Amino acid sequence: LAKTTQPISMDSYEGQEVNITCSHNNIATNDYITWYQQFPSQGPRFIIQGYKTKVTNEVASLFIPADRKSSTLSLPRVSLSDTAVYYCLVGDSRNTGFQKLVFGTGTRLLVSP
Amino acid sequence: ETGVTQTPRHLVMGMTNKKSLKCEQHLGHNAMYWYKQSAKKPLELMFVYSLEERVENNSVPSRFSPECPNSSHLFLHLHTLQPEDSALYLCASSQDEGQWSADTQYFGPGTRLTVL
Q1: Closest CA to A50 of A33, A71, A67
Q2: Measured distance CA(A9)–CA(A12) in Å, rounded
Q3: For labelling alongside B94, which of A13, A46, B79, B110 has CA 20 to 30 A away?
Q4: Confidence (pLDDT) at B44
Q5: How many whole angstroms from its chain centre is CA A1?
Q6: Contact between B110 and A43 using a beta-carbon 8 Å cutoff
Q7: B90 contacts in chain A (CB < 8 Å)
């Protein structure tokens, strides 16, 4: 089974770049890595998804090394509003049913002035 | 606004009550999900309906009963709950193109449930 590991929390200051790494040692060849952001009392919101190398959109970049055993979400120039919990999600196509989706425990990012 | 709505937003119920949570998606998706999120715990996937078929999860207690009458609506029927069932219940939807585990999911705002 794929399993993900993330740091429990991270602290940063406004304007800094933040990198959050997720380990997924047992990811299958065909599986994607997805990151979500969640604010208190709200549902998670999609940030970015990738399969290999680098993906960039208007809010973040996702770096995936060749061995795909980890991935790094990069948030450029964070602001106070980026304070949230960030989840790494790996789809595990080798499994059936609920084992197909493996959410990380989430990284609580606190951005200070 | 993600295109996924949930009602009610807050619910307080006793252990002997029967209540239902409702989710509606306006995105034309064909997969819908129920999640449970307890305080300071990761998201726990409870049920998945993919192409209107339910994916079973034997670890969910029978006091939680899902219903998916069509691809736009999803219900979670609750009865004889326990205080430890108090949590944020989240609904999500996605466009299942054959591998729902890879889909981008769109979440509703959740229902904050308190069981007394």
Answers
A1: A33
A2: 10
A3: B79
A4: 87
A5: 18
A6: yes
A7: 43-44
Taking the C-alpha atoms of residue A90 and residue A102, their distance in angstroms, rounded to an integer, is: 5
- d(CA A76, CA A89) in angstroms, rounded, equals 21
Given this model, what pLDDT does residue B15 score?
A: 87
Are the Cβ atoms of A93 and B45 closer than 8 angstroms?
no
Smallest CA-to-CA distance from A3 within A109, A110, A94, A112 is with A94
- The answer to whether residues A36 and A87 touch, using CB atoms and an 8 Å cutoff, is yes
Q: What are the DSSP E strand ranges found in chain B? A: 4-7, 10-13, 18-25, 31-37, 44-50, 53-55, 64-70, 73-79, 87-94, 106-107, 111-115
The single-letter code of the amino acid at A51 is Y
Q: Is A84 helix (H, G, I), strand (E, B) or coil?
A: strand
Task: Provide the 3-class DSSP secondary structure of residue B102.
Answer: helix
Contact A36, A45 (CB under 8 A): yes
DSSP B72-99: TEEEEEEES--GGG-EEEEEEEE--SS-
Identity of residue A79? S
Please give the pLDDT value at position A99: 61
What is the average pLDDT across B97-112? Answer: 84
**Biggest CA pair distance of chain B:** 41
